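hey
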């Protein structure tokens, strides 16, 4: 199989792609700076929630830097960086505006649902970045060359990193106190199920053959113990 195969809308050939990654990081950083300005420089109906949501954007940006410059080994096209930056602007700024009260005129007191939301954000972040770090460490071992990683958090789900994003964005949307925000985790889940996962599974089956097929036959595809 060619090492430059494109699946799921991305080129999976190994490439440092330093310039596109740098542009991607700079664009995302600019979005986060705008979120911080919106939260701290303007007056809102719910200023405390706006500030907390800007903090979520900062956390996501820091994790994104780890992904770009430590974990991600495949090629990143400039078009991908631009498209994902636009999507990040949509949900990071959108979440902040909804939570700040752009559609209401009073603050929503913090309560148990907000604690749940923060827990989901933390847990989802751990599942996504933690699983990728586990895989990276395993891949560096000489005996792991050419093999499919099926351990760590990935033993519970073939795409535990995607599941982590689902959990994270559900918590982030919950923190806004607006049902409109749930369009983001819903659309993300649909994209995973019907676009990214089928394409990635086909690629991994070709690359790893029987080893991946045996793993797929006994492991949940996305949600541990469920699907």
């Amino acid at each position: 199989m060619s090492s430059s195969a494109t699946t799921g809308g991305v080129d999976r050939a190994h490439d440092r792609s330093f310039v596109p990654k740098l542009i991607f990081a700079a664009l995302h950083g600019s979005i986060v700076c705008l979120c911080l300005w919106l939260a701290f420089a303007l007056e809102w109906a719910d200023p405390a929630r706006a500030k907390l949501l800007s903090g979520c954007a900062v956390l996501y940006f820091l994790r994104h830097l780890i992904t770009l410059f430590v974990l991600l080994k495949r090629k990143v096209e400039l078009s991908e960086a631009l498209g994902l930056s636009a999507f990040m602007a949509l949900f990071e700024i959108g979440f902040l505006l909804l939570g700040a009260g752009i559609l209401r005129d009073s603050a929503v007191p913090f309560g148990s649902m907000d604690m749940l939301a923060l827990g989901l954000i933390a847990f989802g972040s751990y599942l996504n970045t933690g699983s990728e770090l586990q895989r990276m460490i395993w891949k560096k071992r000489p005996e792991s060359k050419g093999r499919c990683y099926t351990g760590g958090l990935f033993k519970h789900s073939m795409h535990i990193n995607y599941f982590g994003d689902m959990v994270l964005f559900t918590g982030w949307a919950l923190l806004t106190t607006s049902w409109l925000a749930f369009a983001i985790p819903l659309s993300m889940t649909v994209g995973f199920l019907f676009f990214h996962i089928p394409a990635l599974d086909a690629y991994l089956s070709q690359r790893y053959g029987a080893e991946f097929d045996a793993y797929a036959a006994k492991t949940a595809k996305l949600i541990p113990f469920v699907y």
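The chain has a mean pLDDT of 94. Residues 6-108 form one domain.
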